[in-house]
Specification:
Elements (H helix, E strand, L loop, with lengths): L8 E4 L4 E4 L12 E5 L2 E5 L11 E5 L4 E5 L13 E5 L2 E5 L13 E5 L4 E4 L3 E2 L9 E5 L4 E5 L12 E5 L4 E4 L14 E5 L2 E5 L11 E5 L7 H6 L9 H5 L5 H12 L4 E3 L4 H5 L8
Parallel strand pairs: 11-15
Antiparallel strand pairs: 1-2, 3-4, 4-5, 5-6, 7-8, 8-9, 9-10, 12-13, 13-14, 14-15, 16-17, 17-18, 18-19
Keywords: Kelch repeat, Repeat
Protein name: F-box domain-containing protein
Pfam family, one: Kelch_KLHDC2_KLHL20_DRC7
Length: 283
């Protein structure tokens, strides 16, 4: 059997160095979620390979101390490969399951991080299928959690896209007006400057190394981006034509203007990046 790890590592984005922190005596799991609140990391769920967990564990980054938390209210069922999102003083758990989800529709649970009380969130609208190995991201501008991909109880990989409005607790399905990533699970995602990025994942037959962007919001352009508009639509590929003479910020600005909003677009990598096994696209 493969050994399960309970160690924790920290990566400094300033010095670009790793350091090993304190290991946990009771968090030897995989498929758990991790998010942050104040000075704590919050771990929920996971699996040992034989059993599934619905326990909550805190790691205090100031005191370097692990703590298994006692909560009240109805806990989510034991699960792994779910997603956790912290909004204000609430942690939302979305989806997940055992090897496959037990429900037809995705369940949503909320832990009040002040009172440590659980409650199941009753949502309206068009809820997504229950799923595991999906991704979720929170957009503070629209107060919305976005869900993409994963696989359902029939082990079918998904490429659907949903939004949960936290103001109304209503689900809506998002229709992509342009091309979108192929169905997949175990991908990664992040939300940056008004855009959702999808990276990698697998569809059961193939592992992906592509990057996709869905732009929600058009940001107010900077002076450099406004100046870049003088060459917008004048050339088919601004990076090939002007990439050697224009600053990267200008080329990026032109491409952002051309992409626009409300649609997925596949991010282009250089030949060197495409041929690498782990592309440093965001370096």
């Amino acid at each position: 059997d493969e050994e399960l790890c309970s160690d924790l590592f920290e990566f400094s984005t300033l010095s670009r160095t790793w350091r090993r922190l304190a290991s946990s005596a009771f968090c030897r799991l995989y498929g758990q979620s991790c998010c942050s609140f104040e000075s704590k990391l919050i771990f929920f769920g996971g699996s040992s390979g034989k059993q599934y967990s619905n326990e909550t564990v805190f790691f205090d980054v100031k005191q370097m101390k692990w703590e298994k938390i006692s909560t009240t209210g109805p806990k989510p069922t034991p699960r792994y490969k779910h997603q956790a999102v912290v909004v204000g003083h609430s942690m939302f758990i979305l989806g997940g399951g055992n090897y496959r989800p037990a429900r037809d529709k995705m369940d949503v649970h909320m832990l009040n991080l002040k009172t440590l009380e659980w409650q199941e969130v009753k949502c309206t609208g068009m809820p997504p299928e229950a799923r595991v190995a999906h991704t979720c991201q929170y957009d503070p501008l629209s107060n919305t959690i976005y869900v993409w991909g994963g696989f359902n109880g029939r082990l079918v990989r998904l490429k659907d896209f949903y939004a949960l409005d936290l103001g109304t607790m209503k689900w809506d399905s998002i229709h992509c007006s342009t091309g979108c990533p192929s169905a997949r699970a175990f991908h990664a995602s992040c939300l940056c400057e008004g855009s959702l990025y999808i990276f990698g994942g697998a569809d059961g037959h193939k592992r992906h190394a592509d990057v996709w962007k869905y732009q929600f919001h058009l940001r107010i352009p900077s002076l450099m981006v406004l100046a870049a508009q003088s060459v917008v639509n004048k050339v088919s590929d601004v990076r090939d034509t002007y990439g050697d003479i224009l600053p990267d910020e200008v080329v990026d600005g032109i491409e952002k203007i051309n992409i626009g909003a409300d649609g997925f677009g596949r991010c282009q990598m250089s030949p060197k990046q495409e041929n690498s096994s782990c592309s440093a696209f965001f370096s």
